[in-house]
Amino acid sequence: MGYLKSSPIWAERFIMKINDNSELYTNCVFLGGTCANSTWRKDLISKLNENVPYFDPQVPDWTPEDAEREDACKPVAGINVFVITGDALGTYSGFEICEEAHRAPEKLVFATVGELPENQKKGIAKIKKALAAMGCRVCETLDEIAEIVNAAY
Q1: Which residues contact 14 (CB under 8 A, 6 or more apart)?
Q2: pLDDT, tens digit, for every residue of 102-146?
């Protein structure tokens, strides 16, 4: 992923998310996965180098425009991070993970954080195994994700 360091984004410093500037989506880090009451994004962002541009799709009031921005970002992002936590309320992230794993497995980084409900553990274990077999990176902690992302930028 060293090519990311040669992108125009590398030359600038980012201290905030880039959701409202589609010109900066290319080679950014997309932060997908559990929203709800989860704080994993804030926790991960605090571990990222200041120069890492990221797209955080979690907003207080989801709109169709937010969905359009998210859909525009994922295909051109340099890394697509997906984290599932026990706070997950729906299954849409599962679709997104599947879509991105098939589109560009080398760009997908997946992890589960915290305690998952018992009824999800077996399925998540299968997902992790399948993603790893496809060439996606499967992590166990936010620190591992931060290490991958920081090394790429």
Answers
A1: 24, 50, 51, 52, 53, 54
A2: 999 999 999 999 999 999 999 999 999 999 999 999 999 999 999
**Are the beta carbons of 133 and 121 closer than 8 angstroms?**
no
Residue 69: its H or E element: helix 64-73
CB 114 within 8 A of CB 103: no
Element at 31 (helix H, strand E):
strand 29-33
* Cβ–Cβ < 8 Å for 74, 30: yes
Give the whole-angstrom CA distance, residue 72 versus residue 121: 31
Contact 24, 153 (CB under 8 A): no
Structure tokens at 18: 């880039």
Residues 74 and 3: their CA atoms lie apart, in Å, by: 18
Distance CA 143, CA 153 (A): 15
Q: What are phi and psi of 98, to 5 degrees?
A: -60, -45
- CA gap 106, 134 in Å, rounded: 9
* DSSP 3-state of 104: coil
